[in-house]
């Protein structure tokens, strides 16, 4: 059916449609189940979970789990909850996102609109970073950080994510800017605008759709990043993703605090979830937007 | 004084020769049109003049100064683009003042310049709008305003009307011509539209394959095309160019078409005598083959008849050759039947079949 591509899909007959919905619903439940379990457990006390099972309906609403996870629970001998680690993550994510987006915009602008000899090769090399596995770059980074004296600092993670993020941000921005007519650049040249004035006055005001995309992409990616965080920082310097593992591996008592751990996970996921809820629309819109209508 | 001189200009893109030795001199105050089919190099030539492309060889001189090493902004030029290239995020006012802003012109002077140009182009009420809020014609005016505000030595227009609809194009054509009459600056205007070229130009440079075929006044280009390309490019429909044999009959030079039709030629210069007894290309404008009295009689078979309202275009057959004719709008001729027409051979042109050049 639909081989010619011109005719639209005909709706399935009724029994078939219900079967389809049933299968889809089953998959949805299957994929959502872990999240549901975490949400439910975040409202259950450790005693309750120990008495019954890790899967179960909360008997009451144990809000103290959230308070404890945020500011009291002991992680690696510090009993301040995940709050300091959340702060670390913000201190890392905000500059790394801004820097990688700004540099990607400038790089994409150069590659797409100021053609130079070998520009496609430069672009190919930059974009190759998208495809390289993170593990491959651990040792080179370790050497670089030691040379720079940045070992075990948040600054080290900012540097890493800025540099590595440029592959994506350059790709995004270049593909967007390539849609800007060359005539605009020519007009700017005749008008006497140079490289930076053209960028600042003409290109940047056309960029919000793609900048929103790169900011969301970078923020989410860097916030959720775990490998570099856990490798290059320890103790109080760790981002929240690394600290969550420390929570799971510090059973201070014989009672496993599943409730507090679940609350901590949800709190740590909150920033990216909020970005998704409030920015997701712009993300989808920006990916398909053209620069000039 | 020559406002623009181009000498021996060559431009290559990869292995393609786009400009093959262009020589052109445009006087101050002239309206010079670069006309040619797409891919003939006319836009590249304009970009080289503007400094947006670097030539591989040759010189560009603007106002007596060789500008090969001068960046576009210092060449004392202004440019209007086919796509208008208005800065989308800026208001009309900012679009017009951006060049002055880059050159550091004081704000007061900028405001006065905008006022002057806005009044000239009647865009005063659009100044605070964004380009996306303008119609095609308005954008076109703003693009012109951005060029005019600079008051340059040389205006460069790159097919500025080709994005407008037909009616607006005709209006703007008239307006640009009036504007040129008023400001008297030098204009280099690129187009592929021969009507624009014929109506606006003081001289037309007809280009093909990266070479200037002819650079002359519109009348000359139309009536005395330098070669077969120009003859076949200009005019809708273009000049008939048919093979004919030159003979002398009763002491008069006669062109024989298709072995049957004999057209005596008047006022032919001495150079033509050398071609007697040989084949040449005979060029006759369709409007010189008509159904009014006078001229030489020609009998031809009517193959196609196209009434356009203002006239009727005919495709005629004479021996093995085909000719286009322009006859009265109400002429209704039977297809496939011979009919008799009048041919005005006074403006007929003869071309050398080898060199394809006009026989002077």
Question: Could you explain the architecture of this structure?
Answer:
The complex is a heterodimer of chains A (about 290) and B (about 350). By secondary structure, chain A is an all-alpha fold. Chain A folds into 2 domains: about 15-65, no CATH class; about 85-290, MetI-like fold, CATH 1.10.3720. Helix content of chain A is about 70%, strand content about 0%. Chain A has helices at about 15-40, 45-50, 65-70, 85-115, 120-130, 140-150, 155-175, 180-190, 195-205, 210-225, 225-230, 240-250, 260-290. In chain A, helix 3 (about 65-70) crosses helix 13 (about 260-290), helix 4 packs across helix 10 (about 210-225) and helix 7 (about 155-175) runs antiparallel to helix 10 (about 210-225). Residues about 1-5 of chain A have low confidence and may be disordered. With about 350 residues, chain B is an alpha+beta fold. Chain B has 2 domains: about 1-225, 3-Layer(aba) Sandwich (Rossmann fold); about 240-350, Nucleic acid-binding proteins (OB fold (Dihydrolipoamide Acetyltransferase, E2P), Beta Barrel), CATH 2.40.50.140. Helices cover about 25% and strands about 35% of the residues of chain B. Chain B has 8 helices and 20 strands. In chain B, strands 6-7-8-3-9-10 form a 6-stranded mixed beta sheet, sandwiched between helices. Chain B has a 5-stranded antiparallel beta sheet with strand order 13-12-11-14-20. In chain B, strand 9 (about 205-210) and strand 10 (about 210-215) form a beta hairpin. In chain B, helix 2 crosses helix 3 (about 105-120) and helix 3 (about 105-120) crosses helix 4. Chain B is elongated and about 80 Å long. The model of chain B has no long low-confidence stretch (mean pLDDT about 90). The interface of A and B includes residues 189, 191 and 192 of A.
